[in-house]
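Researcher: Please predict.
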Amino acid sequence: MVSLDDIQKAAELIKGRVLRTPLIYSPTFSKMTGTEVYLKLENLQKGGSFKIRGATYKILTKCDQLGPGIVAASIGNHAQGVAMAARAAGIPATIVMPVWTSITKQEATREYGADVVLKGQTLMESLQIAKQMAASTGKTFIHPFDDPGLITGQGTVGLEILEDLPDVDAIIVPVGGGGLISGVAFAAKAIRPKTRIIGVQAEACPSAFVALREGKPSVVEEKISIADAIMVTRVGEADFPILKEKVDEIVLVSEEQIAAAILLLLERKKVLAEGAGAAPLAALLSSSVALPKGSKVVLVISGGNVDSRLLDRIIRQGLLKHGRIMRLSVTLEDRPGSLAGLLDMVARTQANIIHIYHARNERDLPIFQTRVELELETRGIDHIAKIANALRDAGYKIELK
């Protein structure tokens, strides 16, 4: 069904049509984990994710069989990959997306030339609608993960990793429906059988984890997750045999761990990753994955298509949870110089003021007092404690928010 020869031919076929993404070494994450960490940056791929690889290969090998066009269903990455590949091939594409899909992803898909149809409350509902649409119009349906052609195309990620790092010990891959990890596992195991292939899923939707545990694809309950690209409630029939045979283990990560990994990738490597793309780092940092010290490990940063509003929330909440932002309220005597004195004291603690709100006319304030609310950028939990102690020692009554 899939072979190394097929994946190698796919690499030649899509060469020049997709990017060969970089594999970069991270001294920071290596020091944090005791391993040699490399990042496969598929977030820099055309369309912002690996999906264009499989879509391009599928379309190029089936051009004469596609009829009047293509129909696909997706939350975002597959939609953009198919849209770009179809436009490059001069073939019309229609993408069915769940009604709650972010406007950012809808507009990106339209800009790549596809018609967008918003139908379905879940990805599975949208998939059924897309299949029916294809059947009634004579167009070709392209599944987002349950297709040997897509698995073959996605396998070029694994091929590139082994070419750039022939002695890689482990590759950690995000898992939704299983198309990416199936392709990567097939390529990697064929070239270097001792390489461990580790999949990562969000705890909110552990479909592949449950499938391997039960020995068959099973439908799981879907909850809300910031890793929306891997929120697939059932792994693909074409993917499962490869997962079962070639994937060494699948681990789960929490929403907090994913959010922390997104923030770390931004701050330490200046890499923008969506939730799914950050999941491999989340797994490595959470000790969900046990690797010998010094192991060479590749994290597949599968995509970077994160909604801007969600990213803002992730960053702010992450900074708060890790003590990088401090919020406090101080009541001052309303006299000249009192606010300046407070701000001078804050400056001496080496905190950076992000926001300040100075209120005089509030119902619960005595007439000659004011309330100042501050949001400060800090270095961490210890720094917050030092700031609070310094202000209290100086006679300020503060309330931490």
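Model: The CA atoms of residues 84 and 334 lie 61 Å apart.
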